[in-house]
Design brief:
Strand content: 5-15%
Distance between the termini: 18 Å
CATH class of the largest domain: Alpha Beta
Largest sheet: 5 strands, parallel
Oligomer: single chain
Helix content: 25-40%
Shape: elongated
Number of helices: 7
CATH architecture of the largest domain: 3-Layer(aba) Sandwich
Structural class: alpha/beta
CATH superfamily of the largest domain: Ribosomal protein L4/L1
Radius of gyration: 27 Å
Order of helices and strands: EEEHHHEHEHEHEH
Length: 210
């Protein structure tokens, strides 16, 4: 299958790049798999920051509120029990929870192939021969404008050089990714996926039929 190809100056190339159908032409029949891998990416990146105090960690409460018998009220041994205001939390997060989700390698690669195929089928995918290595944000922004990448853009390269990282880091809606570390989350969220010819070779070797 062929797809729109641009030169490093942003003009249309004379010959369109040919993509491997086993990677970019997969029929996405299993949408549940895409959702599973998408959710796993978010879960594995989740920071476990919420921590609450149990009754043993809340300060105070060492004195018995009132005597055990004779008051007519219910018996309590501490004012820091969970059912009192100012008391501890009975079943709150401890900071030790594990929210990660496991997806096997075969399923993950199939989901990435489906996401790449969806991008190619919907016209979001474009190929560029090479990217500017000046390190200037203005040069990269000008190139993206020429190829029509005006919204959320995922740039896939074979190697993330320091110049490209510096140039893309100043563009708010642009994300730079290495071909070996593609994921379903970035592919599905991008409005434009711009992939270099060198990165296509790596993706084909990684995900294509051996």
């Amino acid at each position: 299958m062929a797809i729109a190809t641009y030169t490093k100056s942003g003009t249309k190339a004379t010959t369109a790049a040919k993509l491997d159908a086993s990677v970019f032409g997969v029929v996405p029949s299993n949408h549940e798999l895409l959702k599973q891998v998408y959710d796993a990416y978010l879960a594995n990146g989740r920071e476990n920051l919420a921590v609450t105090k149990t009754r043993g960690l809340v300060s105070g409460g060492g004195k018995k509120p009132w005597k055990q018998k004779g008051t007519g009220r219910a018996r309590f041994g501490s004012s820091r029990n969970p059912i009192w205001r100012g008391g501890g939390i009975a079943f709150g997060p401890t900071g030790l929870e594990n929210y990660s989700k496991q997806v096997n390698v075969k399923a993950k690669r199939l989901a990435i192939r489906q996401a790449l195929s969806l991008s190619a089928d919907s016209g979001k995918l474009a190929v560029i021969e090479s990217l500017p290595v000046t390190g200037r944000t203005a040069d990269l922004a000008s190139l993206l404008a020429k190829v029509g990448a005006n919204r959320r853009t995922l740039i896939v390269v074979d190697t993330k050089s320091d110049e490209l990282i510096r140039a893309a880091g100043n563009l708010q809606q642009v994300k730079l990714a290495s071909a070996k570390y593609l994921n379903v989350y970035d592919l599905l969220n991008a409005d434009t996926v711009l992939i270099s010819t060198a990165a296509i070779t790596i993706v084909n070797e990684w995900l294509g039929d051996k």
